[in-house]
């Protein structure tokens, strides 16, 4: 093999980085025999800083060399043009790559720092400014810290206004995902509430209560509502107590339901295995009821796969399996009576991958009948079968139908029916589908003879 050195195969690329970041510049030599050696130039001067690595590029019979320049902590003085130089000592030849510009931007000033002064003196005086890196820190009248808006006068109007606005924005999602009432709404309404709610203005109280009522209206009756009440034991006399039973902490003048009721019972569920799902049993009455769950008439308790939450009103299946299939109901009871919900059936959805029967090539004379068979995989609930012709979803027509078992039945074959067909089985509860092999349908003319 003759000694040679071809032009640089890949040149380093220009980059813009901030001071202190890491930089990688890469270069690939042309074919070289013996392998090329790579060095780096910065502004036409040999560059020896950083870590310089080189090795074979691509493996196999490749005769190219990959060179990498690594600067782990780039500085302002590293700004400039970089060129990689490939050397072949045997032919005493060197070739340069195209220049790459490295632009290093200085560290950004500390612009996010703010100064908030809370002065409790009756007669406040002047306050000297704070300087950081010779820059004056901006003084503000309020700022947001860990989700809480704090003002220099320790009033909560700004915080309440922001809280109400944020909660109102999430009411749209609450209407779509009412079961996530706790995670979406409660986090906004309960953060630091014992610290600031009692000191809110009357206007802020009303604004918060309006959001609470709207959320309660959307999620009623399965989700526990909030109510405002006065707790004389608390210094601020203002709390949002949770009401799981519908009666605790209510004011004396409020109306309390006396008869025991299940306002929402469990519904039938078909769910994919290895997923989490829950059944709801919302009950109310006086005295406050307790809720128990039963599967196939057997009492349920907390276990590794089941969780009873919200005082038993929520039955959570942590990881649905075949063993969870069955009939469920809840019972609400208090000192006066016991009532039982309607049963609900939990069906774990499954679908195998292999078709029982797949379509095969068929030849038919025009006007005759023919059937393309398709028996979908075992599925619970039964899979839905769709047919495709030439990779397009087949739309129903009068001369062919899809049978209840999935077969495509042509009552009278037309010349336009010729093509390539396949069927697809899907289980909507699994968000999964399985496609059969393809089959060609050939339609012969009326005067033609089948061979």
TrEMBL record:
Q: Where is the Ig-like domain?
A: 6-103, 257-340, 348-442
Signal peptide location:
none
Per UniProt, which keywords does this protein have?
Immunoglobulin domain
**Keyword Repressor belongs to the record:** no
Going by the entry's taxonomy, the superkingdom of the source organism is recorded as: Eukaryota
Q: Matching SMART domains, A to Z?
A: IG, IGc2
Q: Indicate yes or no for the key word ATP-binding.
A: no
**InterPro entries, per the entry:** AlkB_hom8_N, Ig-like_dom, Ig-like_dom_sf, Ig-like_fold, Ig_I-set, Ig_sub, Ig_sub2
Q: Which SUPFAM superfamilies match?
A: Immunoglobulin
Question: What is this protein's record name?
Answer: Neogenin
């Amino acid at each position: 093999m003759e000694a040679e050195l071809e032009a640089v195969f890949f040149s380093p690329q220009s980059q813009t980085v901030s001071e202190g970041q890491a930089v990688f510049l890469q270069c690939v030599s042309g074919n070289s025999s013996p392998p090329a050696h790579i060095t780096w130039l910065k502004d036409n001067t040999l560059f020896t800083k950083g870590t310089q690595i080189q090795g074979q590029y691509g493996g196999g019979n490749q005769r190219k060399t990959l060179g990498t320049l690594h600067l782990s902590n780039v500085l302002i003085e590293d700004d400039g043009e970089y060129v990689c130089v490939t050397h072949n000592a045997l032919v005493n030849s060197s070739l340069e790559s195209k220049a790459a510009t490295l632009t290093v931007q200085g560290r950004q000033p500390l612009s996010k720092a703010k100064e908030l002064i809370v002065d409790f003196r009756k007669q406040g005086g002047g306050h000297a400014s704070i300087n950081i890196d010779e820059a004056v820190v901006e003084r503000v009248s309020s700022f947001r810290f860990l989700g809480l808006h704090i003002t220099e006068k320790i009033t909560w109007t700004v915080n309440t206004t922001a809280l109400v606005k944020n909660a109102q924005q999430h009411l749209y999602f609450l209407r779509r995902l009412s079961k996530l009432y706790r995670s979406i709404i409660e986090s906004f309404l309960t953060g630091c509430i014992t610290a600031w709610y009692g000191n809110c203005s009357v206007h802020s109280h009303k604004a918060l209560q309006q959001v609470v009522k709207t959320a309660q209206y959307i999620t009623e009756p399965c989700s526990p509502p909030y109510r405002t009440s006065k707790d004389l034991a608390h210094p601020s006399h203002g709390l949002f107590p949770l009401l799981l039973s519908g009666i605790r902490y209510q004011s004396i003048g409020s109306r309390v339901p006396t008869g025991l009721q299940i306002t929402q019972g469990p519904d039938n569920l078909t769910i994919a295995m290895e997923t989490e799902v829950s059944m709801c049993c919302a009950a109310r009455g006086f005295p406050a009821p307790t809720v128990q769950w039963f599967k196939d008439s057997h009492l349920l308790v907390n276990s590794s796969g089941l969780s009873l939450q919200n005082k038993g009103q929520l039955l959570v299946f942590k990881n649905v399996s075949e063993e969870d299939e069955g009939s469920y109901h809840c019972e609400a009871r208090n000192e006066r009576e016991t009532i039982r919900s309607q049963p609900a059936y939990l069906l774990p959805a499954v679908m195998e991958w292999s078709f029982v029967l797949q379509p095969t090539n068929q030849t038919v004379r025009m006007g005759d009948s023919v059937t393309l068979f398709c028996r979908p995989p075992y599925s619970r609930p039964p899979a839905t079968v769709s047919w495709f012709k030439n990779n397009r979803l087949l739309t129903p027509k009068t001369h062919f139908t899809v049978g209840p078992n999935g077969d495509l039945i042509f009552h009278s074959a037309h010349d336009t029916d010729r093509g390539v067909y396949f069927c697809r089985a899907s289980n909507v509860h699994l968000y999964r589908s399985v496609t059969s092999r393809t089959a060609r349908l050939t339609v012969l003319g009326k005067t033609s003879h089948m061979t």
